[in-house]
Write a structure and sequence with these properties.
alpha+beta, Glutaredoxin, five-stranded mixed β-sheet, two-stranded antiparallel ribbon, 5 helices, 7 strands, disordered N terminus
């Protein structure tokens, strides 16, 4: 049973990409530079409203509200696993109405393979993030990044946002 992969981070010199040099478009197609979140922990989550874990969208809102001073949750809707049939306009409206989301929601995009959005390419490539190779295997996988933009935890979809495991990882990270 996969639960949590907690990473010890060693920084080696090499050619990496700084997370804060990247950007994405939100569900309303607004440009969002990652440097906007510099100094905060970031929880990246690939989401889909048709997934059995869609209830986690509301829990992500609760987590975001609880840790708003130190944590940003960013949801990346994706149909990579066939569970997000909605358009970006529907996502922007429906997530807010059905789940009360106020955290950033990216434009719908792939999160796997070579067609993955730039953020998930960075999350998945040790050559870019200088920490770990990570392959998204299902909806609602989560990646926690510390205040310096370093990956410190990867969580399986079975780890709920309000779980003790997730809360402890957020509280104990720098």
């Amino acid at each position: 049973m996969k639960t949590l992969l907690f990473l010890s981070v060693l920084f080696f010199a090499g050619t990496t990409v700084n997370l804060y040099s990247l950007s994405f478009n939100d569900a309303n197609y607004n440009y969002v530079p990652m440097n906007r979140y510099s100094g905060k922990k970031i929880l990246f989550v690939n989401v889909a409203s048709g997934s059995a874990q869609a209830y986690q969208l509301a829990q992500l809102q609760q987590l975001y509200t609880q840790h708003q001073d130190s944590l940003v949750v960013i949801a990346f809707p994706s149909n990579s696993f066939g569970k997000e049939p909605k358009s970006n306009a529907e996502i922007a409206t429906d997530y807010s109405i059905a789940y009360g989301t106020s955290y950033p929601i990216a434009v719908k995009s792939p999160v796997v393979n070579d067609s993955a959005n730039i953020i998930f390419q960075w999350l998945g490539s040790k050559l870019q993030n200088n920490v770990v190779d990570f392959k998204v295997g299902t909806d609602f996988q989560k990646v926690l990044v510390d205040r310096k933009g370093v990956i410190i935890g990867i969580f399986d979809s079975s780890i709920a946002p309000l779980s003790t495991t997730m809360q402890d990882a957020i509280r104990t990270s720098n």
